[in-house]
Amino acid sequence: MFSFGLTASSTSTTVVDLVMGTLDTQWSDWTSNLNWRDVSAFWAELSPYFPVAVAGAIVWGLWLYRFILSRRAKPIVTDYRATTSVVVPSFHEDPDILMSALESWLSQRPDEIIIVLDVEDLDAYARIEALHDPTIKPILFHHVGKRSALGAGIRLAKYDILVLTDSDTWWQPDLLQNVQMPFIDPLVGAVGTHQTVYKRETSVWRRIADWLVNIRYLDYVPAMGAAGAVPCVSGRTAVYRRSAVLPVLEHLENEYFLGKRCISGDDGRLTWLVLASGYKTVHQSTARALSMFPSSFRAFVRQRVRWSRNSYRCYLTAIGTGWLWRVPFITKITVLQILLTPLTMGLTMFYLIFYRVDVTVLGVSAALCWLLLGRGIRGISHLRRHPRDILILPVLAFTVILVALPIKLYAFFTMNKQGWLTRHADQTGGDGQNAVSLKTKADTAAHSADGARGAIV
Fold this sequence. Notes:
Blueprint: H1 8-33, H2 36-46, H3 50-72, E1 84-90, H4 95-106, E2 112-118, H5 122-129, E3 136-141, H6 146-156, E4 161-165, E5 169-171, H7 175-180, E6 188-197, H8 204-226, E7 237-241, H9 242-245, H10 249-253, E8 256-257, E9 260-261, H11 266-276, E10 280-291, H12 297-320, H13 329-356, H14 361-378, H15 380-385, H16 393-413, H17 441-456
Parallel strand pairs: 1-2, 1-4, 2-3, 6-10
Antiparallel strand pairs: 4-7, 5-10, 6-7, 8-9
Helix pairs in contact: 3-8, 3-13, 12-16, 13-16, 14-16
């Protein structure tokens, strides 16, 4: 018998040694051929962009995180029903707008509608009284800001669920039914609705507002609602458990920030008061409302200044009182990102413009294309609904920068300047938010033509 003189174990060891030897030889050949000066030069070109890359990765990562969570969030469906009181603060609203909105509320049969009119709104009061509907209770009240009117209406309300809605907001079918469903959970204190812009096609600034609002309600709010902590249940139509509001109503009406009485920002304040009381604030995507937005650039900017001031006061108070640290992670990072956007975006743009972007036609064009691409991707939820809005993408990108930098910076340094900005004591309707502003150019031309024909006849 012959023997090869090798055991199975020695054979295995020999094979491993051969493989490792081959790999060592290949690695030595590769490293000897590698030009380390080329690698060093490549890193030198890349490293200046590293801070921007890190910042971009964080921002895009947070966006993707919220986007995915929002897509997974589902509306709450139950058979829960309760009695409802609708409370409407109305300050010099265009009577045509108010009566049109009132029709949409009445059609859903709430138990009562309390409309708190200013003492000078006699035309609207007379038109409501002429309906002779026992469900509607108009009252004349000397407004001292929206909060005072809300307080007056809430104290008169008799039923379990408070539906706080603006005087220029229309409900879409089944809103009242859908907003009641989440209250089956006794820990739910507030329910937010999905809101879009009424007659968005009548103004480019309404289309821009609709885009921004859609991003909020499609990609941001559902994620926080699923966690039970929407940080601001928008007051255009916000629904509360009455028993959660009454104990904190005094703190809504009489909030002071750095010694000044707060006039606006009622929705954010009430949301945090309810959250701090231990309740959840959720979002109901099937409850949909349409609301008036400004038709002009000037009014659009004024509205954003007011909202930004409200956000700073509200969220800085939430941080100072410790409320922010007791909400889920998704809400914490969203609030902090809102507060820090002017800083993060400002530093990034400053760094790119003054240190990285080549001031050439090609360099500037590439930067603009990258900006529009990024904004288009983040607006994909809106563009799926309104594909033609891709044509106003450059305007949208400009608006986002305008809001995030000059408007928010101005709002930060003037955050304690109180006022509504878009409504005035000597004016009917808000700036660019009356019945006339809803007419398109075609409507205006047709009206003029009818007038001309009438004059000829």
